[in-house]
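hey so u asked for the seq, here:
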Amino acid sequence: MRLDKLLAHAGLGTRRQVKKMIQAGTVEIDQEVIKDPAFQVDPKLVDITCEGQAVHYQQYYYLMLNKPAGIVSATEDHYYETVIDWVAADYSHVDLFPVGRLDRDTTGLLLLTNHGQLAHQLLSPKQEIGKVYRAWVQGRVEANVITAFADGIDLGDFITLPAQLSIINYDPAQDRTYIEVEIYEGKFHQVKRMFSAFDHQVVTLQRIQMGPIVLDPNLALGQYRPLKPEEMQQLKPFGLIE
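ran it, structure tokens below
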């Protein structure tokens, strides 16, 4: 990899900025000053410093975001703030993208990465990765809805795979039901459409799990963090590379 590309990817500046730093003699590889921005380097085999500080190169990034309502699951948007805008203060030097999407008004677990193969594996319909949501749904959800979810629902354009629906609580004062549901697709507005088929409106929707990754209960709405080593280990079967 070119030295200037590596330093830019490590967050030390733009390609133009790091070229000037290299040419100014501030970068050393194995204690030897290198002034050629095109110098080829393998970060796994050498020690790199810039202005006396060690440079830590990371090829792939994996973040957990507790997505708040109001931002969109996209890399860019002309009207709304995106999840990438949300983390830009810390990760503007990385070409992150969301693994799948959550509706603008949906909150909860969203993975961000720059590792395309991992995202492809997690989103592939063949994998049938489970996604767990909790929601407040208008009205009392009865047993027949649980059965229908388990059988699969014909939504017109497709029939859903069997889904596991459980009732957590019913609030008679507001006539709404708190539920948990696990689905194995990620179609547009799928959970909302499934409940709408039984005349139940989804009031709030939160994703709490995707595959083996569970939303950190200590991660406040809007906060994000890198995946922990044990979480990364859980994603290795899907192609995660450290």
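The longest helix spans residues 15-23. The helical segments are 3-9, 15-23, 83-91, 116-123, 143-151, 190-196, 229-235.
lmk if thats what u needed
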